[in-house]
Amino acid sequence: MKQRTCVLIKPDGIEKKVIGQILTRFEDQGFQLLGMKMVPVNQEKLENFYSEHKGKTFYDHFLNFMLSGPIVATVWEGEDIILRSRQIIGATNSQEAEIGSLRNLYGTDNRKNLVHGSDSSISAEREIKIMFKESELCLNNSLDLNEPRQTKVP
Ligand code: CDP
Ligand code: MG
Questions:
Q1: In a domain, 152, yes or no
Q2: How far, in Å, from the CA of 110 to the mean position of ligand 1?
Q3: For the stretch 44-61, what's the b/e string if a residue is b when 16 or more beta carbons lie within 10 angstroms of its beta carbon?
Q4: What is the CA(117)–ligand 2 centre distance, in A?
Q5: Whose CA is nearest to atom 7 of ligand 1?
Q6: Rounded distance, CA 94 to CA 113, Å?
Q7: In a domain? residue 142
Q8: The overall pTM is greater than 0.90
Q9: Is residue 129 part of a domain?
Q10: Ligand 1 atom nearest residue 119's Cα
Q11: Which residues place a Cβ less than 5 A from the ion ligand 2?
Q12: Fewest CB within a 10 Å sphere: which of 11, 57, 129, 131?
C-alpha cells in the first residue's frame, strides 16, 4: 500500500554531518521525496508535533534536545513506507537499534537518536501538516521518479 511519512533529521544528525547518509538510505529504497527543508526549530510546532509525549518523564529533556539546533524536515512516499522507514531508522534506543539501522550507525542513546519517522499514516498526515504548507510539497510531479539513478559513481 502506498503511504506517506514525515521524517525529521534531528539536531544530532545535522551536527554529525550525516544528512546525506540518511537521505541516501531512503533514496536507495526507491522512495519518492515530496518535500524537504532545513529549518530553525520552532518550539510551538515541536510541542504540537510531539504532543502525545507531553507529561512523560523525558519530555522536557527531549524538547530541549530538539530545540538545540536546526532540523531537516522531509516527506516521502512509497510502498509500505511507514513500516519500512521505521526499519531503516531502527529502535528508539540507539544502543538497542538493529545492526545497520540509522540509529545503530549514528545515534547515541534513547534521546539523541538522529531521526524521527511517523508511526502510522494518520500520524504522518498530522505531522506533515504541522511541518509543511501544501505549497511546499511537490505532489504532482511530471517526472518519472521511479526511474533508476542516472548518475555515474566515480
Ligand atoms: O521516535 P520513536 O517513535 O522511536 O520513539 P517515541 O517513543 O515516539 O519517542 C519520541 C522521541 O522521544 C524518541 O525518538 C526520543 O528522541 C525521545 N525519547 C527520549 O528522549 N527519552 C525516552 N526515554 C524515550 C524517547
Ligand atoms: Mg514515535
A1: no
A2: 6
A3: eebeebbeeeeeeeeeee
A4: 7
A5: 92
A6: 6
A7: no
A8: yes
A9: yes
A10: 3
A11: 119
A12: 57
Distance in Å, CA 119 to ligand 2 centroid: 6
Tell whether 6 is covered by a domain: yes
Give the CATH number of the domain where residue 23 resides: 3.30.70.141
Q: Look at the chain and report how many structural domains it folds into.
A: 1
Do residues 49 and 79 make contact, with C-beta atoms less than 8 angstroms apart?
Answer: no
Q: What is the DSSP string of the chain?
A: -EEEEEEEE-HHHHHTT-HHHHHHHHHHTTPEEEEEEEE---HHHHHHHTGGGTTSTTHHHHHHHHTSS-EEEEEEEEETHHHHHHHHH--SSGGGSPTTSHHHHH--SSS--SEEE-SSHHHHHHHHHHH--GGGS--S--S-TTSPP-PPP-
Domain of residue 31 covers 2-136
Pocket test for ligand 1, best of 63, 111, 120 (most atoms within 8 A of CB): 111
- Distance CA(42)–CA(101), nearest Å, equals 28
